[in-house]
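step=encode ok
step=design start
structure_in=
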């Protein structure tokens, strides 16, 4: 047993409910490791859990991603004290010390700083499954990426461009559009300004429509994403930054061209160790090769976590935000 400062959610609500408290962290049990957390990623899943969209009994410690050094291990864990490790999808990560399921831990390659590893895991592996598995992007494909200057968005733009796709990027400000362009987007659209977003996307494809739309914005972009697809196109609705999409008549997919809509989650694309190590390995390899540049746009102590989440939820952030416990 040890004690640690942790970022707590005492009750559901906005960023103002977040508190730093000292909590007891038990010794690791079967299949667990206790990790001294160097950095914890700021992600929308934390927001959905804090607001109650994804129900979690309160009070709880927030944070779902991090990197650090193993302090102690329980039976049946493939890491040892002193190992540098990173993970995603582990609730309770925003603390000085956290219990992490051993099956989620990946080794951080030599030469990769722990804060970079923490910043890369959740958004990097998400982009990886979206471009390799949800829809396997091919050279010459037309790809739509919404919120392209955001955390996942920056990974998607760079990976799709590296695969030889034509990237059509949307974002909500001139600065964010310039970021997307600098990362390889061929066409950029300010979706807060255009009267008809789908028409603007179609125009960028000479009327043909896109092969795939990567939509983590949700409510405000879903209809345009659907209308921008070519026949048999794929809409990967992977988030709801602007709110959840209302119920939907499946018959519309037929009328609009035998379309595909999926609502994927990272958890279902890292189902076993082999898949987790493949995806995280390709994330670290992309960073090492320079295929993807990672922008850590803000580092916050736990005491300033409210500001970090206000930036993410208030559309004020680009790239990745980190908490440094
Ligand atoms: P981002 O850094 O992309 O931040 C969200 C961005 O969404 C904002 O910066 C903003 O960009 C845009 N946005 C548009 N409308 C709104 C709105 N009303 N409120 C807030 N933001 C808005 O966040 P992440 O990279 O962390 O996550 C992006 C999406 O990916 C989220 O929906 C998240 O849930 C999802 N996700 C899904 C995963 C999965 O496996 N399914 C895993 C990881 C993330 P702009 O100003 O340019 O409009």
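sequence_out=
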């Amino acid at each position: 047993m040890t004690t640690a400062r942790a970022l707590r959610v005492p009750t559901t609500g906005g960023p103002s409910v977040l508190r730093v408290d000292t909590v007891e962290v038990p010794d690791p049990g079967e299949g667990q490791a206790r990790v001294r957390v160097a950095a914890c990623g700021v992600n929308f899943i934390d927001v959905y859990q804090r607001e109650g969209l994804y129900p979690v009994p309160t009070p709880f410690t927030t944070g779902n991603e991090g990197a650090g050094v193993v302090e102690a291990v329980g039976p049946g864990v493939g890491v040892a004290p002193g190992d540098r490790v990173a993970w995603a999808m582990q609730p309770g990560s925003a603390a000085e010390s956290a219990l992490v399921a051993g099956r989620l831990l990946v080794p951080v390659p030599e030469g990769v700083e722990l804060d970079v590893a923490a910043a890369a895991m959740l958004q990097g592996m998400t982009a990886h499954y979206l471009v390799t598995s949800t829809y396997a992007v091919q050279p010459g494909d037309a790809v739509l990426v919404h919120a392209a200057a955001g955390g996942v968005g920056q990974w998607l733009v760079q990976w799709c461009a590296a695969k030889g796709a034509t990237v059509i990027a949307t974002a909500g400000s001139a600065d964010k559009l310039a970021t997307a362009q600098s990362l390889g987007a061929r066409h950029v659209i300010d979706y807060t300004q255009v009267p008809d977003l789908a028409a603007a996307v179609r125009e960028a494809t000479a009327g043909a429509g896109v092969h795939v739309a990567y939509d983590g914005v949700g409510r405000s972009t879903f209809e345009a994403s659907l209308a921008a697809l070519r026949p048999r196109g794929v809409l990967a609705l992977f988030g709801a930054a602007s709110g959840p999409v209302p119920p939907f008549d499946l018959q519309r997919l037929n009328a609009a061209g035998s379309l595909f809509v999926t609502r994927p989650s990272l958890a279902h694309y890292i189902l076993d160790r082999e898949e987790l190590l493949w995806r995280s390995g390709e994330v670290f390899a992309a960073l090492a090769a320079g295929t993807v540049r990672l922008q850590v746009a803000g580092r916050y102590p736990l005491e300033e976590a409210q500001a970090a989440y206000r930036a993410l939820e208030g559309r004020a952030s680009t790239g990745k935000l980190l908490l440094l416990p």
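step=design ok
step=annotate ok -> The chain has a mean pLDDT of 98.
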